[in-house]
Design a protein that fits this description.
Blueprint lengths: L4 H16 L13 E5 L9 E7 L2 E7 L6 E7 L2 E8 L1 E10 L2 E9 L5 E10 L6 E6 L3 E2 L9 E4 L2 E7 L20 E6 L4 E3 L5 H21 L8 E2 L10 E2 L2 H15 L3 H15 L6 H12 L5
Antiparallel strand pairs: 1-6, 2-3, 3-4, 4-5, 6-7, 7-8, 8-9, 8-10, 11-12, 12-13, 13-14, 15-16
Length: about 300
């Protein structure tokens, strides 16, 4: 009995298909773990120390006054890459994403309320030169740790800082609800450090949702309705005026978050409506609006 031709071809296909189409093995995912290197421990009991940061990058720290001021020199494969003089350089975070490696150096500049700053280096891949990308703007308090500050989204590397331009905005530092508001994101590539907050629009919108609930609670707990959102401070003049209550600061905070989310019309519509709703007059609201616009224009967001 002859074997049908169709059956023969089926048998041949089954035999040959595995050899012709080998199974593809997915490459391992890129390493996104952050290695954190303590820069203070090597300086204990000495005035200078050298620390290996990996990838041929070496850091030398020198204490200038024994307390806060330090000098930092970075060498990449023996070539001087960077000299910084500042406060205390606390730690280095090293992150590898694909072939690229990033180093972040955390600095506490000193002072009662300031500042956490970071300097960044990057290498596009093995054998490529290490570059100094730049420094971040400072924010209130000492710098946060590295694992929670690096953000990797779809293979892109970001670093989370904070916008502190509204500290002392019609309130003392201790009374302010606008310290380090809101989160501020830097986009790192092997060639540049840029500000790029839009990929984190969801962070701002999520915080607005939480803030709306808090606004309702605070408004319900009020026993009186103030005349205006601002009241006179210790000195004469608009600059010295302070918020009449907590609600005013929360309204400004929500406005800032809407501006960061690039919902400008919603920012000002809700601000004006709620000032008119929660205060007996809208006095000082136009001046606050202009001041917020001016501050937001001082540097990119």
């Amino acid at each position: 009995m002859k074997t049908p031709k169709v059956a023969v071809w089926v048998v041949l296909w089954l035999l040959l298909a595995p050899a012709a189409s080998p199974a593809r093995v997915k490459p391992p995912p890129p390493s996104e773990a952050v290695a954190v290197i303590d820069l203070q421990k090597p300086l204990q009991g000495r005035s200078a120390a050298t620390v290996e940061l990996g990838g041929g990058v070496t850091l030398t720290l020198t204490s200038l006054d024994g307390l806060m001021r330090q000098h930092l020199t970075v060498l990449a494969n023996g070539r001087k890459l960077l000299d910084l003089e500042g406060g205390r350089f606390l730690a280095c975070g090293r992150l590898q994403v694909g072939p690229a490696t990033y180093w972040g150096i955390a600095e506490y500049t000193g002072g009662a309320h300031c500042c956490g700053e970071y300097a960044f280096l990057a290498q596009a891949g093995p054998g490529e030169p290490v570059r100094f990308l730049g420094k971040t703007r400072g924010y209130g308090g000492g710098p946060r740790g590295f694992p929670e500050s690096f953000k990797v989204r779809r293979g892109q590397v970001f670093f989370e800082g904070f916008d502190n331009r509204f500290d002392y905005f019609h309130a003392s530092h201790a009374d302010s609800l606008l310290v380090n508001v809101p989160p501020y994101y830097y986009h790192l590539t092997p060639a540049a450090l840029t500000i790029d907050n839009l990929p984190f629009k969801f962070v701002y919108l999520r915080e607005i949702g939480q803030l709306d609930q808090l606004l309702k609670q605070v408004a319900m707990a009020r026993t009186t309705k103030p005349e205006a959102i601002l009241v006179p401070g210790y000195q004469p003049g608009y600059e010295s005026m302070v918020f009449a209550d907590t609600l005013g600061q929360l309204l400004v905070k929500r406005t800032i978050l809407y501006l960061y989310a690039r919902q400008d019309r919603k920012a000002w519509d809700t601000f004006r409506q709620d000032v008119a709703r929660f205060y007996r007059t809208s006095d000082w609201a136009p001046q606050l609006e202009q001041e917020i616009i001016q501050l937001m224009g001082e540097y990119p967001y």
